[in-house]
């Protein structure tokens, strides 16, 4: 039950198939890394899990704790416990992070019940302390005029506040300097635990020095071509993706 | 994720209710000299007012509709089918206990009792044509502030009333100001003596509660030298099948060094023609500020103006317009600079939903002989759907040298990516839209008093609930 199961997923956009039979299982408590060259379909995969309307699922299933989520609206999936940290999070001018998060937390409160403001702020500040964030941060409009690092920290704060069952982090390391990367890694590591399954999508091995995954998968041309332990990431760093691509046509991979 | 709307049926929780009508005075349908005499008889108008009305009627009948630039929809108004005067025959009341039960229920839906308890300095609430409830707190009265209905104002304070009445907006200003001058009833009269600063905002709530009935309130506010006041009006109207006409005239006079802030939050039902003339006169070093929020109605045409008559006078219009499906908000501002070193500021934000249309019409006038005048105009439009529409018609005439004008305009659309981002955090599409729109107007909403901004947020939410399919 406590797992996110993707089975033989096929996804198209404008009649072009981008995900071509992807299968993957993420159990709660595990951290999986998906690596792959540019254009392999990693970000598409993340968006499809979250229910982005531009993509058409032509075959396969995504079961979250036994429930097929492909028929659900993006917000329903989110409220059931699926979180996506965006590679390029949108700006919401005029809406503060505090108010945005409050609306998001309120959306999870049973109908007819009101979120207690003092309780909400107490939780928010606790999470911010955990992530070493300055309190003035949440008074700013969501992502408006944010640096790359600030945007990613905002994503991590939301992840911390919304306490999902499964979190997909799409290229969370892209555009970050080493200090920002450490902050993000610290955030993810402090949220890691038996109640959270994590899917890290990254192009570089670098992030995996700070967030050590339980499993590493290599995605090439819309499929997972190779899976292994954390050492696989190091191997990739050394040999590059071409090594997998060459192997991709051969059957029975390790 | 932004869906097209062909049928958008906004369900309002507010304003969509009505109680049985029991009117003791009814001028009947249509408008002739007889109607005017009927109104003047019932209201026991002094002769000069009766003359004023008759004169205005002639002006109204002789003036063409402003159809050369205005919406063709105006032609849908059938003046012969409108009731021009209705009254419950109820005298203005000062105690809440004396207000009839069904009127109370209506006010309760509007949240007036709460407002009252919180910090109201005075309430002047209009139900149909007559003020049924007015309550001036001791503090305001002791300061010498007059806050009464316009009928009481012209009867009991003719020396002030007559001096300023119809001076800022003459009868012949436009067809609808003439109509209002002919049949006006209700509205507020306020006078603030020199140097008196009214701490709490004075409030009035207006309602229309009769089918085929036009509401023609007339408000006159005078802030004497160095006086300060904030006035707030909120409007909601119940839904009806046939068109309703609302045509008010509001005149503000800020004498030397005075400050008037006039705040409106309107939520008319979507069959109302809302054609309002609002203008303020700012003397030397005085300030007139209009904060105007228009939601609902079938067609709103409203361009609050400030005539800056004295040196260093200031005028400001902050406006928010929300045009729902099938609605047209034609709003803007008029800034007439008539003295040196006068400054004006216009900030307008509009939101168009579905086939809704928001038009900004602005006039800034600085004649050649003036020096060191400044105007700043910003208009931002937000489009919710692909078939939503916005237009901007700025008319800026600045002559002479040493005057500075700045005009900025932007049009943006709620992006599908933004909505997806918010949905991924668990908000429904409607909630996401609503938050996005609230964010867009947030910097302006902050200028509203607290409870108004809460009400405004709620109104926007109600509109957005209906905007996604």
Structural overview:
The complex is a heterodimer of chains A (254) and B (469). Chain A has 254 residues and is an alpha/beta fold. In chain A, helix 5 (148-162) packs parallel to helix 6 (178-191). Chain A has eight helices and twelve strands. Helix content of chain A is 33%, strand content 29%. Chain A has helices spanning 42-50, 74-79, 97-106, 117-130, 148-162, 178-191, 231-239, 242-248; strands at 3-13, 16-27, 31-35, 56-64, 67-68, 82-85, 92-96, 141-142, 166-170, 197-202, 215-220, 223-228. Chain B is α/β, with parallel strands linked by helices and 469 residues long. Chain B has one domain. In chain B, the strands form three sheets. In chain B, strands 5, 6, 8, 10, 11, 13, 15, 16, 18, 20 and 22 form an eleven-stranded mixed sheet that branches. In chain B, strands 4-3-7-9-12-14-17-19-21-23 form a ten-stranded mixed sheet. Chain B has a two-stranded antiparallel ribbon with strand order 1-2. In chain B, a hairpin with a 2-residue loop joins strand 3 and strand 4 (130-136). Chain B is globular. At the A-B interface, helix 2, strand 7 and helix 3 of A face helix 9 and helix 10 of B.
Question: What descriptive keywords fit this protein?
Answer:
heterodimer; A: 254 residues; alpha/beta; Rossmann fold; six-stranded mixed β-sheet; 12 strands; 33% helix; globular; disordered C terminus; B: 469 residues; eleven-stranded mixed β-sheet; ten-stranded mixed β-sheet; 23 strands; disordered N terminus
Q: What is the C-alpha radius of gyration of chain A, as a whole number of Å?
A: 18 Å
Structural class of chain A: alpha/beta
Strand content of chain A: 25-35%
Main sheet of chain B, how many strands, which sense, barrel?
11 strands, mixed
State the strand order across the main sheet of chain A: 6-9-10-3-11-12
Distance between the termini of chain B: 10 Å
Shape of chain B: globular
Q: What is the approximate shape of chain A?
A: globular
Task: Characterize the biggest β-sheet of chain A.
Answer: 6 strands, mixed
How would you name the oligomeric state of the polypeptide chains in this document? Answer: heterodimer
Number of helical elements of chain B: 11
Number of DSSP-assigned strands of chain A: 12
Helix content, binned percent of chain B: 10-25%
What structural class do helix, strand and pairing data of chain B support?
alpha/beta
**Rg of chain B:** 21 Å
Reported by name, the CATH topology of the domain at 3-88 and 165-248 in chain A is: Rossmann fold
Helix content of chain A: 25-40%
């Amino acid at each position: 039950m406590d797992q996110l199961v993707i089975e033989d997923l096929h996804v198209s956009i404008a009649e072009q198939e981008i995900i071509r039979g992807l299968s993957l299982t993420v159990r709660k408590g595990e951290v999986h890394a998906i690596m792959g060259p540019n254009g392999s379909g990693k970000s598409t995969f993340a968006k499809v899990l979250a229910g982005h309307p531009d993509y058409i699922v032509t075959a396969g299933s995504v079961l979250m704790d036994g429930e097929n989520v492909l028929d659900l609206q993006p917000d329903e999936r989110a409220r059931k416990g699926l979180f996506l940290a965006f590679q390029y999070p949108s700006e919401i001018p005029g809406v503060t992070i505090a108010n945005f998060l409050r609306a998001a937390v309120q959306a999870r409160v049973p109908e007819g019940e009101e979120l207690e403001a003092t309780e909400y702020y107490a939780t928010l500040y606790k999470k911010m302390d955990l992530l070493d964030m300055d309190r003035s941060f949440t008074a700013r409009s969501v992502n408006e005029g944010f640096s790359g690092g600030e945007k990613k920290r905002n994503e991590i704060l939301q992840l911390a506040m919304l306490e999902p069952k499964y979190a997909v982090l799409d290229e969370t390391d892209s555009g970050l300097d080493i200090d920002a990367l450490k902050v993000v890694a610290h955030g993810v590591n402090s949220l890691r635990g038996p109640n959270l399954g994590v899917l890290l999508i990254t192009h570089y091995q670098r992030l995996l020095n700070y967030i050590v995954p339980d499993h590493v998968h290599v995605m090439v041309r819309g499929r997972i071509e190779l899976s292994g332990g954390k050492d696989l990431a190091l191997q990739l760093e050394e040999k590059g993706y071409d090594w997998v691509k060459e192997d991709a046509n051969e059957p029975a991979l390790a | 994720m932004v869906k097209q709307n062909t049928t958008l049926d906004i369900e309002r929780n507010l304003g969509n209710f009505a109680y049985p009508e029991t009117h003791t005075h009814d001028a009947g349908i249509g408008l002739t000299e007889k109607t005017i005499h009927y109104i003047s008889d019932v209201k026991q108008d002094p002769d000069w007012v009766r003359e004023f009305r008759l004169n205005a009627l002639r002006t109204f009948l002789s003036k063409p509709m402003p159809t050369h630039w205005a919406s063709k929809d105006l032609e849908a108004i059938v003046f012969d089918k409108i009731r021009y005067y209705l009254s419950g025959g109820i005298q203005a009341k000062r105690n809440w206990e004396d207000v009839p039960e069904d009127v109370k229920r209506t006010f309760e839906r509007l949240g007036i009792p709460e407002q009252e308890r919180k910090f109201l300095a005075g309430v002047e609430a209009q139900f149909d044509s007559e003020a049924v409830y007015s309550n001036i707190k001791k503090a305001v009265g002791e300061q010498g502030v007059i806050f009464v209905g316009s009928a009481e104002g012209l009867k009991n304070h003719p020396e002030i009333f007559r001096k300023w009445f119809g001076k800022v907006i003459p009868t012949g200003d436009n067809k609808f100001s003439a109509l209002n001058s002919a049949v006006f009833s209700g509205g507020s009269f306020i006078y603030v003596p020199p140097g008196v600063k009214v701490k709490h905002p004075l409030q009035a709530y207006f309602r229309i509660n009769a089918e085929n009935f036009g509401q023609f309130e007339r408000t006159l506010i005078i802030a004497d030298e160095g006086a300060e006041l904030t006035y707030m009006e909120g409007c909601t109207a119940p839904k009806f099948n046939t068109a309703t006409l609302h045509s008010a005239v509001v005149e503000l006079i800020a004498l030397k060094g005075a400050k008037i802030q006039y705040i409106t939050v309107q939520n008319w039902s979507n069959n109302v023609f809302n054609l309002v003339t609002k203008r303020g006169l700012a003397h030397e070093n005085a300030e007139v500020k209009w904060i105007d929020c228009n939601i609902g109605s079938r067609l709103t045409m409203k361009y609050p103006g400030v005539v800056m008559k004295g040196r260093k006078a200031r005028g400001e219009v902050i406006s928010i317009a929300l045009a729902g499906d099938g609605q047209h908000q034609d709003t803007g501002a008029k800034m007439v600079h008539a003295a040196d070193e006068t400054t004006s500021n216009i900030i307008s934000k509009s939101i168009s939903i579905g086939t809704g249309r928001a038009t900004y019409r602005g006039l800034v006038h600085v004649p050649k002989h003036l020096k060191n005048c400044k105007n700043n105009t910003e208009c931002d439009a937000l489009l919710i759907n692909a078939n939503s529409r916005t237009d901007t018609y700025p008319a800026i005439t600045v002559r002479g040298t040493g005057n500075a004008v700045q005009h900025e305009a932007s049009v943006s659309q709620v992006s599908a990516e933004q909505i997806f981002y918010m949905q991924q955090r668990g908000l429904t599409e409607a909630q996401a839209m609503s938050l996005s729109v609230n964010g867009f107007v947030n910097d302006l909403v902050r200028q509203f008093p607290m409870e108004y901004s809460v009400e405004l947020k709620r109104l926007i939410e109600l509109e957005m609930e209906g905007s996604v399919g």
